[in-house]
Amino acid sequence: MEGAGGGGSGGGSGVSYQRFPRVRIREMKDEYMKFELRDTDASMANALRRVMLSEVPTIAIDLVEIEVNSSVLNDEFIAHRLGLIPLCSERAMEMRFSRDCDACDGDGECPYCSIEFQLNVRCDSDQTLDVTSADLHCHDHRFLPVDVAQRALAAEAAGGYDAPEQRGIIIVKLRRGQELRLRAIARKGIGKDHAKWSPGATVTFMYEPEIHINEELMETLTHNEKLSWIESSPTKVFDLDPKTDQVIVADPEAYTYDEEVIKKAEAIGKPGLVEIYAREDSFIFTVESTGAIPAYQMVMNAIEVLKQKLDAVRLSDDIQDNDDQFGDLTRNIQGAAL
Amino acid sequence: MNAPDRYERFVVPEGTKKVSYERDTKIINAASFTVEREDHTIGNIVRMQLHRDPNVLFAGYKLPHPLQYKIIVRIHTTSQSSPMQAYNQAITDLDKELDYLKSAFEERISRKLRRVDMEY
């Protein structure tokens, strides 16, 4: 009748179905984080997880020019190993991708998109020499390999002395007379391109379990039956209160949705002993970072990246205008029927 | 040797539109949106957000082939709305949700960071 509603152009005029998710951080360290995400759905939780793993940008070595390599490893092998060294990437979000950088030709010194590293090591002693990430030299100290940066911090805290057990990530070992000399360019990239750019070691989420014990039915069990029922869970979800001899939920989050306790309850002839639901709007996230960016920054960057992605998939104005030209579909169909 | 470049997976080729729109020829208020260089990350959140809209009769997405880096989102709405309106609204709502989530996170993180400072 009215067909008005928006005539296609739409947007803004509709009612909002927005959600207001809640967050609670349980644990936050540089490279590890655990938090609860509530009042949203699995699609959002999974989108965040996917973005953290494969679309949050970091810096990694991408181009290697080898001048001398008389080590036992071939050039490609060394280039690959260099690429996998995590570099401090706090600045990655504001840097440019080298393919989008118009300030340079994409290979070498460019303040917007690349960082140069030098490595120059030669073994002149009879002892095997380890070439490590600490031998990578860069004029800009914001992009040091993660372990080197951490060592510098630790050394500072210890009063200028290096802890001897921290020797960096080994790239190759050299014997007397062998030499490795190269120039490496690090660039911004995302995990979708190559896993070396992924800031996430592991990112997981689980539904928060809701466990209800049928106390009445539970009391019909003998002490030994209770014990064997508790034992039937592969993870320690339940426990026995030593004073009251009651079964209690010790750690609901240890539950892996294996349903072993439910099967066990059925096996001992007490179905419905326990009911377990997955709360489909509550998630427990575990984020582990490679160290390239702190775990909390990874989450913040993921939200930002996801926002940018959404902005990119907005309909462009010309599509919306084009659609208006054709007018209502009803008219089109009627026209075709004639 | 003839492997396609890795960036093909996420860089929209020149001359291609990020989003294109095609009306259904038979059903009123139904349309397909082809989104280039996107995957389940965007497809699934948009679909689920569309399901929250009571004017949307059908919303689904597909990734036609793992080596074709695009998704197709199909929307069918009531006459009170239009696929385009629903699509725009879904994206706006998701964007606002992320804004909200971002500020919630910022607040929580700064609170945690301050507490760590106090421990020293």
UniProtKB/TrEMBL annotation, chain A:
Keywords, in A-Z order: Acetylation, DNA-directed RNA polymerase, Nucleus, Transcription
GO cellular component: RNA polymerase II, core complex; RNA polymerase IV complex; RNA polymerase V complex
Primary localization class, coarse: nucleus
Localization (cell): Nucleus
Keyword Acetylation attached: yes
Nucleus in keyword set: yes
Domain DNA-directed RNA polymerase RpoA/D/Rpb3-type, residue spans: 32-316
GO MF annotation, one: protein dimerization activity
Family matches, as InterPro entries: DNA-dir_RNA_pol_30-40kDasu_CS, DNA-dir_RNA_pol_insert, DNA-dir_RNA_pol_RpoA/D/Rpb3, RBP11-like, RNAP_Rpo3/Rpb3/RPAC1, RNApol_insert_sf, Rpo3/RPB3_RNA_Pol_subunit
GO BP term, example: transcription by RNA polymerase II
UniProt record similarity statement: Belongs to the archaeal Rpo3/eukaryotic RPB3 RNA polymerase subunit family.
Protein name per Swiss-Prot or TrEMBL: DNA-directed RNA polymerase RpoA/D/Rpb3-type domain-containing protein
Organism: Spirodela intermedia (Intermediate duckweed)
TrEMBL record, chain B:
GO molecular function terms listed in the Swiss-Prot or TrEMBL record: DNA binding; DNA-directed RNA polymerase activity; protein dimerization activity
Primary localisation category: nucleus
InterPro entries per UniProt: RBP11, RBP11-like, RBP11-like_dimer, RNA_pol_Rpb11_13-16kDa_CS, Rpo11-like
Keywords for this protein: DNA-directed RNA polymerase, Nucleus, Transcription
GO biological process, one term: transcription by RNA polymerase II
Pfam families attached to this UniProt entry: RNA_pol_L_2
GO cellular component: RNA polymerase II, core complex
Tree of life domain: Eukaryota
Subcellular location field: Nucleus
UniProt family annotation: Belongs to the archaeal Rpo11/eukaryotic RPB11/RPC19 RNA polymerase subunit family.
Name under which the protein is recorded: Uncharacterized protein
Species annotation: Spirodela intermedia
